[in-house]
Design brief:
alpha/beta, two-stranded antiparallel sheet, 40% helix, 399 residues, 15 helices
């Protein structure tokens, strides 16, 4: 089973031993970040630093000035990794170590973009903007995302890509000093708090024959019992989440939101995949980080399993956790799998971030039995030495 490890360029640039250390894990591939959101990351083995602070979303290569000339929405350049092209430098080192390099592209998740262009962000039913969540229904956002996908995915020396956040983002967001946990929000409430009411989405709802203002009031009514504690929502079960959405909103309103959001997301995903393939001009694997429930949002965007596999070469699916949770996410894709389709099971292998490297062999074997043909390991740069030793042992046994 082919294995790939996620890596940041700053894990490799400036560390002459990094590429060989990653190859020695037993992986055949790395998924290397080329466009990424803001983060604060540990680098426990780097000879020059221990913490890297990426202050805002940025590309880790020099963007094409002609592509972005005169456009208000454009990728930001980074300043926290040395060199003009840290992605390219890291990619060359990893390839020299015998690893196949694929790019890792974060798309509709960019807080600086929302701060500087607030009209482009998702706006909830209360009128609050989410700067980290560009509204993908807006034409200028869609154009930006599609062009970023093409440019950031197809870098020199790269043989494929994984597109993260290629769809809707919403209220859920890891945020510095977060204070939104006072009222627990289950999956249904998070969905309701993530529905967008910007002018583009207003027009979209109206195009379906709905009254946008009545839809907004329906969301406010549906959320009222959440704030008063009358509704206690569970979490995790995708079907139960959507059933709760329909109960709170009513089936007609829920169907209107689903029709609009699913259409917008599917069109964006189709266009982004097509743009990447056109930029590559030849064989180039395109995978999406995904979830089989279309109403879900975030890094692993909700998709229709049959629809997405008609466009992309496959999906990367969150598989950390129980056997039942893994089956819930993998099984919906299996009937639509073809010979060219990749189902990659993504496992967190950083113990401190909820991963379980000690059970990787058993978990990967279970995923393979469900239909997965590759695995992803999050994250070779963040994991401790003990975690990496467990990964190395598991991959040796799996081989």
């Amino acid at each position: 089973m082919k294995a790939s490890a996620f890596v940041y360029p700053w894990d490799v640039v400036g560390d002459p031993d990094a590429a060989r250390r990653i190859a020695d894990l037993g992986v055949q591939q790395v998924t290397l970040a080329s466009a990424y959101h803001s983060t604060r990351a540990l680098t426990p083995r780097h000879p020059r630093h221990r913490i890297v602070t990426a202050r805002h979303a940025a590309v880790l290569y020099p963007p094409d000035p002609e592509r972005w000339a005169g456009r208000p929405l454009r990728p930001y350049r980074q300043s926290w990794v040395e060199g003009a092209d840290p992605y390219g430098e890291a990619a060359r080192a990893l390839a020299d170590a015998g690893l196949e390099v694929h790019s890792w592209v974060v798309l509709a998740h960019n807080s600086r973009l929302g701060d500087e262009h607030p009209h482009t962000s998702v706006r909830n039913a209360y009128g609050d903007h989410y700067p980290w969540a560009p509204c993908i229904a807006r034409p200028e956002v869609r154009s930006y995302v599609v062009d970023l996908a093409a440019e950031a995915a197809v870098r020199p020396g790269t043989r494929g890509t994984e597109l993260e956040s290629c769809g809707w983002y919403g209220v859920a967001h890891l945020h510095a000093h977060d204070k939104i946990g006072g009222v627990p929000l289950g999956g249904a409430a998070q969905y309701l708090m993530s529905l967008c009411f910007c002018d583009s989405c207003h027009a979209g709802y109206a195009s379906l024959g709905a009254d946008p203002e009545e839809l907004r009031r329906a969301v406010l009514r549906a959320l009222r019992p959440v704030w008063t504690g009358e509704v206690t929502q569970g979490g995790g079960d995708r079907a139960a989440e959507w059933a709760e959405v329909e109960k709170l909103l009513g089936t007609d309103h829920a169907a209107t939101f689903a029709a609009w959001r699913d259409r917008v997301a599917a069109e964006l995903q189709r266009d982004a995949v097509a743009a990447v393939r056109a930029a590559a001009g030849g064989p180039f694997q395109v995978l999406l980080h995904a979830d089989p429930a279309p109403h879900r949002f975030g890094a692993n965007v909700g998709v229709d399993p049959a629809g997405i596999l008609r466009h992309a070469d496959g999906v990367v699916l969150p598989c950390t956790g129980s056997n039942a949770a893994r089956a819930d996410v993998l099984t919906p894709f299996v009937p639509h799998k073809t010979e060219r389709t990749t189902l990659a099971a993504n496992f967190t292998v950083v113990t401190g971030m909820g991963g379980s490297p000690a059970t990787l062999e058993a978990d990967a074997t279970h995923a393979a039995g469900l239909g997965a043909d590759e695995i992803r390991l999050y994250h070779a740069g963040l994991a401790s030495d003990a975690d990496l030793a467990a990964v190395r042992t598991a991959l040796q046994r799996l081989s």
